[in-house]
Amino acid sequence: MTHTLEIREGDWSELGDIAGEIRRVVFIEEQQVPEDEEWDGRDDECRHFLALDAAGKALGTARLLPDGHIGRVAVLEEARGRVSASP
């Protein structure tokens, strides 16, 4: 079965509320990452991405740093293994 995702791009002021909540759940709650390590102060300088399902529910997030590194990739547990990316 194929699942369709919409990828939304924006800055932290646009996507931060939703992206931040996904990261809080995945990194701080599930993986026990310390809050001061997760919130490193770099989000304002990054481009952010949300993956949304066909109903518009945000399932995952990632950020792109100015130097081109991808980081803070997080997918909600309910969506893991459900979708895959293809070109």
UniProtKB/TrEMBL annotation:
It comes from the Bacteria. GO terms for molecular function: acyltransferase activity, transferring groups other than amino-acyl groups. Pfam families: Acetyltransf_1 (PF00583). Residues 30-82 form the N-acetyltransferase domain. This is N-acetyltransferase domain-containing protein.
